[in-house]
Amino acid sequence: MSLPVTETLLAEQRDHALHITLNRPQVRNAMSLQMVREIMALFDYADTDDSIRAMVLRGADSHFCAGGDIADMAAARAEAGSGNSDPFQALNREFGRMITRVNQASQTVVALLEGSVLGGGFGLACVSDVAITLSSARFGLPETGLGIPPAQIAPFVARRIGLTQARRLALLGVRCDGEEATRLGIAHECVANADDLAEKLATILAQIRRCAPQASAVTKKLLLDVESTELETLLDRAAADFSRAIQGPEGREGAQAFMQKRNPEWAQ
C-alpha cells in the first residue's frame, strides 16, 4: 500500500518515521477541512505499515499552524441557511475527530513547533507525545477574541497543561513564546534555532528506535486511559498486557539481547 495522495500536506517516510509537513504556507498552514481529512488518512495509513514507529509533524515555511481556515468558515456560513444540517457543527466536529485520531495514534508523535502555533495548531501540539519548540514560536488560543470557543481543542489543552493554566490562556487569549510554552508543559524542550531543532529531532528519533514498537504502543494506550478507566480495571488490564508482552516476541528478544549484551532487533 502506497502513501495516500495529499494536496495540503507533504509526506515522506524516512527510516522508521513518517514526516508530515502542513503545507499551506500562504495562510501560515491554517487547517482546512481537506487538510484535516488528509492528516487522518496518513495516520490511518501508518497503522498498515509496521515499519512506521514515529510520526513527525511540522509546518512549512517556518510556521507550524495558525489555526482553522477562514475560507472553510465562510463556506459553512454560506451553507448554513440552505438546509437542516448545521455545517458549523459538522466542520468543528471533524476537526475533533482528527485531533482525537492523532492523540490515540499507536506511533510516537513528535511535533516541531515554529512560528505560529495558534488555535487548532495549539491543539495539535497538545496531542503530541514529544514537542520541541523554537524559543521564537508564538503560542495562543485566540478563539474567544473572535467570538467563538476553542470547542474541540479545550479538553486536550486542559489535559496537557492543567485546568488552571488552560483557563488563563483560553479566557484571556494571551500569547506566549516557546520558553513560556515549555514552562507550561505545552512543549517539552525549547531550542534556539533550526539547526538545534534538527539535532534534537535526530536524538528523539534515535531514542524512539531503541524502544520496542509494540511495547511503546501498549504503554501509550495505558497512559491515555489513566483518566478514563477505573484504577483496578486498568491495573488488571495492564497485568494482562505485561504477561502478553513478556511472553511475546518483543519480550523474548529484549531478554535475549540484554543477556547477550547487544541491541535488540528493533534497535538495529
Features:
15% strand; 2 domains; alpha/beta; 2-enoyl-CoA Hydratase, Chain A, domain 1; 268 residues; Lyase 2-enoyl-coa Hydratase, Chain  A, domain 2; three-stranded mixed β-sheet; Enoyl-CoA_hydra/iso
Q: Would you give an account of this structure?
A:
The protein has 268 residues and is of the alpha/beta class. The protein folds into two domains: 200 residues, Alpha-Beta Complex (2-enoyl-CoA Hydratase, Chain A, domain 1); 56 residues, Lyase 2-enoyl-coa Hydratase, Chain  A, domain 2 (Orthogonal Bundle). The chain is built from eleven helices and nine strands. The protein has a six-stranded mixed beta sheet, sandwiched between helices. A hairpin with a 2-residue loop joins strand 1 and strand 2. Helix 1 runs parallel beside helix 3, helix 5 crosses helix 6 and helix 9 runs antiparallel to helix 10. The two termini are 24 Å apart. The relative contact order is 0.10. The mean pLDDT is 95.
Quickly name the level 1 CATH class of the largest domain.
Alpha Beta
Which whole number gives the mean pLDDT?
95
CATH topology of the largest domain: 2-enoyl-CoA Hydratase, Chain A, domain 1
Helix content: 40-55%
The radius of gyration computed from the alpha-carbon positions, rounded to a whole number of angstroms, is 20 Å
CATH architecture of the largest domain: Alpha-Beta Complex
Q: How many structural domains can be distinguished in the coordinates?
A: 2
Looking across the biggest beta sheet, what order are the strands in? 1-2-3-4-6-9
Biggest sheet statistics: 6 strands, mixed
Q: Secondary-structure element order, as H and E?
A: EEHEHHEEHEEHHEHEHHHH
How much of the sequence is in beta strands? 15-25%
Q: Shape from CA axes?
A: globular
Total number of strands:
9
How would you classify the helix and strand content by structural class? alpha/beta
Q: Kindly report the name of the CATH homologous superfamily of the largest domain.
A: 2-enoyl-CoA Hydratase, Chain A, domain 1
Number of helices: 11
Low-confidence stretches: none
